[in-house]
């Protein structure tokens, strides 16, 4: 199993504000986490692009300090939002940020789908991710290959890729009935439906 994380390098946490899809959001971010000084551009693009289901369970894989999962919970309080990160510092930050933004979510520490598999969840309406490219393509492949078995019929996997968008599209086409790609500011935004 390959993954990476940078711990939280000490020092004062950053306070990051963002206004996404009409929702004012605020995050307290330990230094050293991914994009700790501002919401990452890829994350912001996926946040604008992603379809947010009307109901059901959703999963943010590699949630970091929580932008995507917290936004989904904020925009649709009916959703059951799960967020997973391998880095305990990110998990802790995501939990505190959920509270700060007044949303109820479940944040779990662990590798990719393992924490939600342990809860027996196999019926997500959508899985979203700004995947850990720094951990290598294998991890992205695991996210893509593993998604269909954890989605309910008609559900989707939604990804942003800063690089390797064509490769990811090819992999998704093997596993999903329908794949859409939109390119914006050098990023690929991908959506696959089962
Ligand atoms: C590119 S960052 C995105 C963070 C956050 N979603 C955002 O958009 O700001 C990828 C995240 O994946 C996490 N990660 C890396 N390997 C992982 C694994 N095997 N399982 C779960 N999370 C992982 C990292 O700790 C990091 O927080």
TrEMBL record:
Methyltransferase as UniProt keyword: yes
SUPFAM superfamilies, per database record: S-adenosyl-L-methionine-dependent methyltransferases
Domain of life (superkingdom): Archaea
Swiss-Prot/TrEMBL keywords: Methyltransferase, Transferase
Pfam families membership: MTS
Entry annotated with the keyword Transport: no
InterPro entries for this protein: RsmC/RlmG (IPR046977), SAM-dependent_MTases_sf (IPR029063), Small_mtfrase_dom (IPR007848)
Any one GO biological process: methylation
Cited PANTHER family: RIBOSOMAL RNA SMALL SUBUNIT METHYLTRANSFERASE C
Protein name: Methyltransferase small
Signal peptide boundaries: none
CDD domains from the UniProt entry: AdoMet_MTases (cd02440)
One GO MF term attached to the UniProt entry: S-adenosylmethionine-dependent methyltransferase activity
Domain Methyltransferase small, first and last residues per copy: 26-190
């Amino acid at each position: 199993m390959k993954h990476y994380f940078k711990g939280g390098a000490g020092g004062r946490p950053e306070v990051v504000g963002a206004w996404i899809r009409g929702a004012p959001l605020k995050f307290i971010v330990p230094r050293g986490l991914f994009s700790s000084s501002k919401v990452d551009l890829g994350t912001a693009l996926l946040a604008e692009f992603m379809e947010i289901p009307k109901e059901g369970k959703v999963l943010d894989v590699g949630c970091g300090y929580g932008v995507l999962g917290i936004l989904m919970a904020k925009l649709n309080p009916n959703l059951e939002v799960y967020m997973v990160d391998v880095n305990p510092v990110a998990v802790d930050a995501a939990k505190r940020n959920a509270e700060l933004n007044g949303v109820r979510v479940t944040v779990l520490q662990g590798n990719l789908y393992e924490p939600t598999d342990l809860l027996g969840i196999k019926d997500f309406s959508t899985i979203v991710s700004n995947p850990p490219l720094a951990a290598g393509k294998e991890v992205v492949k695991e996210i893509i290959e593993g998604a269909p078995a954890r989605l309910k019929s008609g559900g989707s996997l939604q990804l942003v890729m800063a690089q390797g968008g064509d490769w990811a599209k090819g992999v998704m086409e093997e596993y999903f009935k329908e794949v859409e790609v939109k390119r914006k500011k050098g990023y690929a935004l991908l959506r696959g439906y089962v």
